[in-house]
TrEMBL record:
GO MF annotation terms: structural constituent of ribosome
Keyword list, A-Z: Ribonucleoprotein, Ribosomal protein
Keyword Ribonucleoprotein: yes
InterPro entries in the cross-refs: Kelch-typ_b-propeller, Kelch_1, Kelch_FKB95, Ribosomal_uS8, Ribosomal_uS8_CS, Ribosomal_uS8_sf
Highest taxon above the source species: Eukaryota
Family according to the record: Belongs to the universal ribosomal protein uS8 family.
Protein name: (thale cress) hypothetical protein
Gene Ontology process terms (BP): translation
Organism whose genome encodes this protein: Arabidopsis thaliana (Mouse-ear cress)
A GO cellular component annotation in the UniProt record: ribosome
Gene3D superfamilies: 3.30.1370.30, 3.30.1490.10, Kelch-type beta propeller
Domain FKB95-like N-terminal Kelch: 120-367
Amino acid sequence: MIRPSSKVIIKFLIVMQKHGYIGEFEYVDDHRSGKIVVELNGRLNKCGVISPRFDVGVKEIEGWTARLLPSRQFGFIVLTTSAGIMDHEEARRKNVGGKVLGNCYPDCPPRWFIVSPITKQKLKPIPSITCQSSTVVSIGSKIYIIGGFVDGHSSRRLIVLDCPSHGWRRLPEMRVPRQNAAADVINDKIYVIGGSSSNNIEDWGEVYDPKTQTWELLLPTTLDLTVQMSVVPGSLVMSGKVYDMNGLKLNLQKNICLVEIENKMCQTKVWEGVLVWYEPEDDRGWCPVDGLEGLPNRPTSPGYLTSVAHSDRGRRVTVWWESAVLHRLGPKWTKECKTEIWCAEISFERRGVGKVCGFVEWSKNVFTKDDYKTYKLPASLVTY
């Protein structure tokens, strides 16, 4: 136990919720002066020396954490016992990390919601599980959560959400732990590639059959996924997402979604708050999607577009954005503590050479929360 007269200096590994950065966080509690000093060292992409100066109990750390993070702007804390400085990937391979102390903001854990385009129906909270760095695919009315971090470590888990019943169920685990893996559904089977720290070719990928509930080995030579699914030279396309291939490693091109526009595959993304499109066979580069009246259309407009996901089997996309509710108070605008999350489904039509027009099939406020925070908006939408 720590004597009340001692000066406590403890360093933590911090994962920031908003940006996903990792850094070293030092907590100094001098009981003699009654002062608490908190510093973020700024090495946001490194795991620092996270060794406490003496043994402390988890309960004590939890108590300090509650005092340490009154603003609740950080994600979770991992107390480690490893010396030296290493990058995040090396730390993860060596299983650096002690006990995950859980969310420091218990009123704002990751949540799952169901949304339907039916009029007046909005996002409905359902029983949730943590899914950091997991991959999500869907078959029919079921959503599969693949791998990700569990208790601070990469996991082999496979969990399914049955949308009609809102029930979660565990399925047979993968052969190796994976995080941020590429995954897609081909012929009613789930293909999972990458996301493992292993350099063994046998750990490159695996296939799950929902009918038999079994996993099979997938080698790079087993199926020419690049020929079958990719429209981007040198890249792999799975579930509408584009991955750069570097040997056995995959790097996700974030916020790029593929969509079929009149029998041709094009890339879409949100760039500076605007929905843009690109055709790999064309040299025009990224062009704005015309039309889309009524949607935010520039970075300076309130609630500009933040993310895009494919929909309707790749023939449409959904766009998501946040909007702060404002009200007039005296001569200045003041933000109310309220956030609206909006969703719209977009279809496309070609209008001459180099022109694509977007049509808003439906658009609405799907969720309102009585505070103003930044949310990680959905990357997939399932309808049934």
